[in-house]
Write a structure and sequence with these properties.
This protein is α+β, with helices and mostly antiparallel strands. The protein is 31% helix and 23% strand. The relative contact order is 0.08.
């Protein structure tokens, strides 16, 4: 039976140690377990802090049904087996998705596999039993009304909208807990047939990171008109975009915010998740003196790829946010850990100087500046900057990804060093020698 056949019949495997089974048998056991339990997701990924073991888990409705570890060689071979079945190229430098049909008896579903490259190969698989309602060409997509029920949630108020989705305040009908409910715009679905699955897949991936500086995602589903939604924690605070609109921040405050964002991105990257749209508007800062920071909009991370390219007259959907996009994303090479670093560098540059490194009302010209124009040395209205901070910013904003920090963790170490310099008896006093 080949990978191109329409269905896969899961075989029986003799019970024995998982460390001894073949990759084919391991995958068959996992798929059978997932089908029988009507699971939603299957994960194969490195065990954090270990180079010798891979974690394998089967989940349903945010609950782990089964989890075990296998030798790393077996885990990677199992991923290769899944890639073969779903016709996904293993030799990739960016996330790739493929699918196949699974069937055992009267149970049938589609297996949607996403491979995430990086220091260690990892795979996530979604088992889809029923898709959203078919989208009708020219269909009108109405805003949710106050009092309207969406599955277990009642809409309380409309909070706002962006280029990709609308956000509502919603209450869980049974539990009484208040959350934020985000709905993907119908216009995005009309332009990209695969947007719905990627929207939910990325929201699900973000929900697994579980980091203090990343918004928690609790639930997801479909509206009656076919649009997907996901439910996340309701956050209080001020958008970093609104904060920088009022002017440059003192370097200690800017560095403290950047450190938390770097920690969030490092945690995401270690779980194989790329944000792909790090901007001030996707960052919330608490209104108190603690400067607690939350990075949001992971649910839309992969939607930027495959939409309009620079120069499209409808700039609302051009590759995320043009002021913060990396040169390689503009060239169509897709988002990576290093492109997230570039975007974080732009955000830090704007916090320090009061403006992003490049600006132009014409989207095409703005993208060309990211590609060709050198970055001016940052100048703060709060005084001269330590040379170490200038060097950090310029390294993050290198045109070539290989010339940036090798990882967000490496950038974070440099940020901590710069922070210690800035705090040494007051950052201005330290500069006077």
């Amino acid at each position: 039976m080949t990978a191109t056949q329409a269905s896969l019949l899961v075989a029986e495997v003799p019970p024995r140690s998982l460390d001894e089974v073949s990759p084919v048998s391991l995958v068959d056991v996992l798929l059978e377990a997932a089908l029988v339990a009507e699971a939603d997701f299957l994960w194969i990924e490195p065990v954090p802090g270990s180079e010798q073991r891979y974690a394998v888990s089967v989940q349903q409705d945010n609950r782990t049904l089964a989890m075990t570890t296998v030798p790393s060689a077996l885990g990677m071979a199992a991923i290769a087996r899944l890639a073969f079945l779903c016709e996904v190229d293993l030799l990739t430098v960016r996330a790739r998705t493929g699918s196949t049909r699974l069937r055992r008896g009267d149970k049938e579903c589609e297996l949607v596999l996403t491979l995430r490259p990086g220091p260690a190969l990892r795979a996530e698989a979604t088992l889809v039993r029923r898709g959203p309602r078919l989208l009708v060409s020219g269909q009108r997509y109405l805003d949710l009304a106050v009092g309207e029920n969406v599955d277990h949630y009642r809409v309380l108020a409309r909070m706002g909208a962006g280029g990709m989705g609308s956000v509502y305040k919603a209450e869980h009908v049974s539990l009484g807990r208040v959350h934020a409910l985000k709905v993907l715009h119908g216009a995005v679905l009309a332009r990209d047939n695969d947007a719905s699955e990627r929207f939910l897949r990325e929201a699900r991936a973000a929900s697994r990171i579980r980091h203090a500086n990343i918004v928690d995602v609790f639930d997801f589903g479909y509206l009656r008109d076919g649009r997907p939604y996901f439910v996340m924690e309701l956050l209080s605070g001020t958008s970093l975009g609104d904060i920088v609109d009022r002017g440059a921040l003192p370097p200690p405050k800017a560095i403290a915010i950047a450190k938390q964002l770097a920690c969030a991105l490092a945690a995401a990257h270690e779980r194989g998740v790329i944000h792909a749209d790090v901007t001030p508007s996707n960052v919330l800062v608490s209104d108190d003196q603690r400067l607690d920071v939350k990075l949001v909009d992971f649910g839309l991370a992969e939607l930027r790829d495959g939409l309009e390219r620079p120069g499209d007259p409808n700039s609302e959907y051009v590759l995320g946010t043009p002021s913060y996009i990396s040169p390689e994303q503009i060239q169509g090479r897709g988002a990576t850990e290093l492109s997230d670093q570039y975007s974080l560098g732009v955000v830090l540059y704007e916090m320090i100087t009061g403006r992003p490194p490049f600006a132009d009302r014409n989207v095409r010209e703005l993208c060309l500046k990211h590609l060709r124009e050198p970055v001016a040395e940052p100048v703060s209205p709060h005084g001269a900057l330590p040379p170490e901070l200038t060097h950090l910013l310029l390294r993050c904003l290198e045109k070539a990804p290989a010339q940036r920090f090798p990882s967000i963790r490496a950038m974070l170490l440099d940020l901590e060093h710069v922070e210690s310099i800035v705090e040494r008896r007051g950052w201005r006093r330290w500069l006077v020698r």
